[in-house]
Write a structure and sequence with these properties.
It comes from Brassica campestris. The chain is of the alpha/beta class. Helices cover 41% and strands 12% of the residues. The strands form three sheets. The protein has a six-stranded mixed sheet with strand order 1-2-4-3-5-6, sandwiched between helices.
Length: 688
Amino acid sequence: MVYAAKKFINNPNDAATDVIKGLVDTYPGLQFLLGFGIHKVKVVIQAGVSVGKYDKVAVISGGGYGHEPAHAGYVGEGMLTAAICGDVFASPSVGSIVAGIRAVTGSQGCLLIVKNYTADRLNFGLAAEEAKYEGYKVETVIVGEDCALPPPRGFAGRRGLAGTILVHKVAGAAAAAGLSLEEVAAEAKCASEMVGTMGVAFSLCKLLGPVTSDRLGQKKMELGLGIHGEPGAAVVDVQPVDVVVSLLLQKILSPETNYVPITRGDRVVLMVNGLGGTPLMELMIVAGKTVSKLQLEFGLAVDRVYTGFFMTSLDMAGFSISIMKADQSTLDRLDAPTKAPSWPVGSGTDGNRPYPKIFVPCRPNTHSEKRQIQHWRYYRLGFGQQPDDERELSQQGRVLKAAIRAAANAIISLKYNLNEWGGVSDGRFGSKMCIGAKAILKDMKYYPLYDAAETMYAIGASISKAMGGQLELCKLMKYNLLCKAAYAELKKDNIDEEVTPRDWSEALKASIASVRKYGGATEGYRTMLDALIPASQVLEENLSAGVDPVTAFSVSAVAATKGAKSTIQMQAQAGRSSAENLATVPDPGAMAAAVWYRAAARAVRKKQHLKPYEGSVVPKSPTVPSRDGVFYFDFPDIGRHTCRDPTFVKTLGAVEVTPPVALHALRLGSPTDSLATLGPWCRFENGA
């Protein structure tokens, strides 16, 4: 036999029984009646309900399977006492209904809530009469809230749809409150007359059996079809959700048909029900559009909204809208607690519904001067331009401005190299980085350069604005993280003070820690961190050793460059390039970080009116130390330096080395190792 669709089932004839077994295993508050495997009695009841001893009105409903979570998912204290289940899209048998009545009905009697389908009415009706004959008190409420069909004609009338679930809840809450059978039945009857439902679908459901034809084409949808795929009111072209919602609401609330007695100014409850094949995302869109139209076009107060899967039709791609007129007593019943596993939790159960839209709170200002607040506000809100007056800035502000400009321009100049190093996985890396760099240059005139922390925040804002929500620019997000983490660190202890070199070092460490935390990479993963981590370590070591801050910055830039070049030998462990063999080129992210870091260091040095930092040392006697064990280093800008420490720094190795650095930052091992490693970069002078 050819089946209509791929399904995770065994035998379609056993599907309903298998569903019950899975349901009661999932929810310990549910039980099923023994013997259903033999006699096909498929009844789910509240756990702990003793036969003949239940002291409240039992509320019973049911129908065919294929509508999950209806009906067994609504069994629980405060809702249904039992659910009688038939096979897929088949009414439950009279024997099953009678067995359910016997299992849960006590002295207070039971209420049968029946959807308006011929088979359901007949079978539940026969079972009710048999139960009455046996001495049980039984009342029946028929629910037919379908608004797609013309006004009632003959015996069939309007079909029972998802609005039945709201009737279940009202009746279950009334029964749990201790009302009599007549009172519970009256509330259920009233609720059934206050609700209207209409659905729409793009496709029919695929039955658990032979192939069935789909009367809807690719570009058609059907309005008002039933939950078993019965024909609806019309087949029309697919329309946008706004149009579809309007069509359904006009039918449900039509004053000509008067399906539900709802008029402008009334309070209502909304249920948006997925029919099985519609994603929850689309249902939420429908809910939002429906609420707006009910409020603005129909003048109704929407007090409760329930969105989800309440009564499905296997895998039908569609949804239904149910609207119930609600006074305070009805809302109290809907808000009453229940243990039914499929009733939605958190849908306004406290009775209060705050206004759903609030303004995004602004970041609190921590500036001490009103001028700073106004300046930064102009940048953030874009209300105008502040004058870019170099004379107003302190020396630190001018240095910071030069460093930012140099770093951004360095990235732009390296665009094509970065694209090439990005390889197949990210061949536009340089172009993406340039977007951020150009945004920084464009916005620089707005930056509060008198405040280093706020400037870091502003750079992050420029990068974020440049991203514009484009996923392909997510590479820039790491730089946004860097800037925001630096801002937080600089603001922590320097709200009104000038930022010191040590503060910048700590800010760099905090930025790296942020990227490691949220990006998941670390040194050796072939990322930007392979440049920044060595730079941070060397910067901290030099500052701790008392090296001049500008020189320390220059030395750390060399460490960044060397770290970036070391990625040539690495296999990527993170990012897109992890799936590509790029062992012949450096990582573009690491190279970009090294380039802007080095450019910033050079700009700072130039702004301090210092000569470009060459700092090379070349061996003169490569393997022999002086007779007294002293090593001599000649530096172009500061002359000769002596060192008696037999271990040298390996971190830098090549360029921009200062005398104090040679003592603490160039650790190799032996003098021979150090010379072999430094090679052509080092002039090692042996002499007495």
